[in-house]
Amino acid sequence: MSVAAITLAIGINGSIAALSAASIVAFVCAFSMGLGPVTWVVLSEVMPQEARTASGSVGLAVNWTTNFIMVRLDP
To answer: How far apart (Å, rounded) are the C-alpha atoms in residues 26 and 30?
Structure first.
């Protein structure tokens, strides 16, 4: 993920569209193989059956709210 993020920065700063596109694909692939599913796997293993849906909803709401705030704070 780090290498993909660095090459994405190089592609964006150098106006190299092909490198930027390839870096985004590499980042998404690395994220989904590494850190992406960790939250959902841990959630299903730790929470009791009756609380999984509610805790997943709360976690997703916090995630989207945090993402929204971070984007709005970007100058």
So the answer is: 6
Instruction: Using the CB atoms, write b or e for 49-75: b if 16+ within 10 Å.
Output: eeeeeeeeeeeeeeeeeeeeeeeeeee
Dist CA 64 CA 58 (whole Å):
10
Quote the pLDDT of residue 10.
94
Which value, to the nearest 10 degrees, does the dihedral of the CA atoms of residues 56, 62, 65, 71 take? -110
Helix (H) or strand (E) holding 11: helix 2-13
pLDDT tens digits for range 41-60: 777 788 888 888 888 888 88
